[in-house]
């Protein structure tokens, strides 16, 4: 199971967190010459020139090729499923709340091989913009006959990728006061559109003229299979660090919480112990929030296998081990870990739990639901999270 990290750890360009630094030499590109081509041979000649280009196939005998030229003022970073060299950040499908299996991912992936590109200004304030689709190894983006594409009133071509790149900017940045924004789709040229009726529908949404593709702290980028959280350098400066989370873990353990029935002392395991349940690990009844040590009793024959009756208040509900959420970038504040997401049992601060419980994340072709940021499990229950009730030591 995930806990803010990939189950098999970071490997090369496939990792759970990716930092963007100013490149030693600019590698950004900007549109330049436009060619309208009526023969496939001419299209090949242009795409073989070694320049970046975007090809829009309008029919069998007409293609518009937009050549891109070097831009000294920007750096480009590409994200996608491909492990080819143009991709800086390799992402794989997040299989919500379950074990990771590379084979199922490869055969069923809905993430594009060259999903999107992020273009950052090299000078302050280092504005970052997102665009759908990434350039492949031959420096080309190819929108075939079936892809949604069009000519804008000003004459420039644009289009959407098969499953689309969706972005949501929260209202008020990434703080405890923030509210969810509206999910939008980003085009290949970076314009903002309302969502299509379904994820891969041919008909594009409506242009949203007063919104931009500029990423802000807390922006969510959905690639149809994985959702990325964008944090700015300034935003991270005000966010708790891994050391802070470790200090909170030690603080809660130092208070020596006890199992109210077995009276044994409980302790959250080390952040590195993310997948093995330990003997002293706290467990909780998610319907009421009472924290216990592990025990075997409380099964009710008339309920599901994981449903138990809390010995403190007789409430029936899921009974799960508690895990401290490990990725500091998901916390909106540095508050104590007092709340758990339901039904996975990942623990974080109250404000972080409230924030994520309200965020609708894309799921499948047209559904949205709140999910735990640490493991992507769909949240359930009245509030999607529960306040934990610890019992202190009797002595």
TrEMBL record:
- Name all Pellino FHA domain ranges: 2-247
The record's Gene Ontology biological-process terms are: protein polyubiquitination; regulation of Toll signaling pathway
Protein's name according to its UniProt entry: Pellino E3 ubiquitin protein ligase family member 2
Q: Which Pfam families match?
A: Pellino_FHA, Pellino_RING
Q: Which organism is it from?
A: Sarcophilus harrisii (Tasmanian devil)
- Domain spans labelled Pellino RING: 252-395
**GO MF annotation terms:** ubiquitin protein ligase activity
Keywords in UniProt for this one?
Phosphoprotein
The UniProt entry's sequence similarity note says: Belongs to the pellino family.
InterPro entries attached to this UniProt entry: Pellino_fam (IPR006800), Pellino_FHA (IPR048334), Pellino_RING (IPR048335)
């Amino acid at each position: 199971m995930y806990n803010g990290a990939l189950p098999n750890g970071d490997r090369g360009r496939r990792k759970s967190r990716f930092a963007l630094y100013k490149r030693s030499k600019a590698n950004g590109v900007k549109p330049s010459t436009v060619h309208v081509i009526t023969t496939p041979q001419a299209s090949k000649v242009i795409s073989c020139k070694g320049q970046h280009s975007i090809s829009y196939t309008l029919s069998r005998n007409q293609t518009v090729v937009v050549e891109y030229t070097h831009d000294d003022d920007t750096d480009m970073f590409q994200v996608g499923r491909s492990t080819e060299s143009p991709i800086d950040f390799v992402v794989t499908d997040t299989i919500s709340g379950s074990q990771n299996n590379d084979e199922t991912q490869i055969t069923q992936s809905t993430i594009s091989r060259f999903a999107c590109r992020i273009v950052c200004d090299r000078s302050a304030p280092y504005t970052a913009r997102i665009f759908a689709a990434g350039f492949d190894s031959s420096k080309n983006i190819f929108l075939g006959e079936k892809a949604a594409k069009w000519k804008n009133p000003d004459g420039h071509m644009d289009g959407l990728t098969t499953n689309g790149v969706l972005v949501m900017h929260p209202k008020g940045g990434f703080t405890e006061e923030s509210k969810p924004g509206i999910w939008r789709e980003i085009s290949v040229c970076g314009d903002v559109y309302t969502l299509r009726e379904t994820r891969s529908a041919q008909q594009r949404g409506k242009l949203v003229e007063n919104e931009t593709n500029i990423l802000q702290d807390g922006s969510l980028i959905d690639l149809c299979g994985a959702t990325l959280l964008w944090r700015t350098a300034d935003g991270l400066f005000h966010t708790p660090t891994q050391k802070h989370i470790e200090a909170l873990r030690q603080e809660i353990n130092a208070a020596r919480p006890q199992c109210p029935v077995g009276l044994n002392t409980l302790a959250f395991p080390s952040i590195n112990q993310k997948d093995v349940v330990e003997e002293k690990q706290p467990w909780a009844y998610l319907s009421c929030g009472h924290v216990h040590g592990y025990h075997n009793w409380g099964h009710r024959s008339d309920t599901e296998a994981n449903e138990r009756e809390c010995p403190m208040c007789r409430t029936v509900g899921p009974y799960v081990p508690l895990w401290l959420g490990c990725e500091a970038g998901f916390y909106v504040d540095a508050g104590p870990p007092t709340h758990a997401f339901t039904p996975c049992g990942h623990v974080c601060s109250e404000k972080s739990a409230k924030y994520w419980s309200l965020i609708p994340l894309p799921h499948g072709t047209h559904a949205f639901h709140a999910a735990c940021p640490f493991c992507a499990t769909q949240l359930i229950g009245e509030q999607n999270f529960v306040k934990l009730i610890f019992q202190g030591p009797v002595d």
